[in-house]
Design brief:
This protein has 217 residues and is an alpha/beta fold. It has a single domain, classed as TIM Barrel. The protein has helices spanning 10-17, 29-35, 39-49, 63-74, 88-99, 112-120, 130-135, 140-154, 168-176, 186-191, 196-212; strands spanning 2-6, 24-26, 54-57, 80-85, 104-109, 125-128, 159-162, 181-184. The chain has an 8-stranded parallel β-barrel, surrounded by 6 helices. Helix 6 links the parallel strand 5 (104-109) and strand 6 (125-128). The chain binds erythose-4-phosphate. Erythose-4-phosphate binds at residues 6, 26, 28, 107, 127, 129, 131-132, 163-164, 183.
């Protein structure tokens, strides 16, 4: 499973990218606003930090303007992916971009039939929002399973990018459900390698080792 970080915070991303475990990044207009910096230089910096796909989202609402914004975003770096909303206009832009070989991420997906339409439009990634569905009393992970089945039924190559992740359990369940990637907030990424028994076990090993007086190097 590919792990993307859901952030526009360049400093935080820099420290996470040092692990070598960050495969890509997703941003959205709210994350750009939260970071408080200009969108274009921010995306350019992010693209230099990770080798993989970096989603930059359009803010136009009609396909012609989305395509104009896509042109500006695409010029930033070769690893930019154009993020488009799952609307009729967004899918029109997605179809046009995929025909030109431009990578796309169709976002704000809340139903399996929306995901079907995005795949038909040639989306590179589809982003089902698990957490927001759960917040709304619906089954976010169930949506991932439905999309997996539909895509496998028809051999769609669109990658399922589990989004709106709230917990490490979401990451586990998305992996079990066959999501191709998950985009994760920095705090959840840091929690993924943590376990209390790992900490306690290491503490005991180091205590016993210190008592031997030995050294390896
Ligand atoms: C995905 O691409 C979105 O940026 C993100 O996962 C939204 O998550 P949220 O519901 O926590 O805002």
């Amino acid at each position: 499973m590919h792990i993307f970080i859901d952030t526009a915070d360049v400093a935080e991303l820099d420290s996470l990218a040092e692990t070598g475990l960050v495969d890509g990044v997703t941003t959205n207009p709210s994350l750009i606003a939260k970071a408080g910096k200009a969108i274009l230089p921010t995306l350019k910096e992010i693209c230099a930090l990770v080798p993989g796909p970096v989603s930059g989202e359009v803010v136009a609402v009609n396909s012609a303007d989305m395509l104009k914004e896509a042109e500006v975003l695409s010029a930033l770096a070769p690893n930019i992916v154009i993020k488009l909303p799952l609307t009729m206009e967004g899918l029109k832009a997605c179809k046009a971009l995929s025909e030109r070989g431009v990578k796309t991420n169709v976002t704000l997906c809340f139903s399996a039939v929306q995901a079907l339409m995005a795949a038909k439009a040639g989306a590179t990634f589809i982003s089902p929002f698990i957490g927001r569905l759960d917040d709304n009393g619906q089954d976010g992970m169930g949506l991932i399973r439905e999309i997996r089945e539909i895509y496998d039924n028809y051999g769609f190559e669109t990658q399922i990018l589990a989004a709106s992740i709230r917990t490490t359990g979401h990451v586990r369940d998305a992996a079990l459900a066959g999501a191709d990637c998950a985009t994760i907030p920095p705090a959840i990424f840091k929690a993924l390698y943590k376990h209390v028994l790992t900490d306690l076990g290491l503490e005991a090993f180091l205590k016993d080792w210190a008592a031997t007086g030995q050294s390896i190097t």
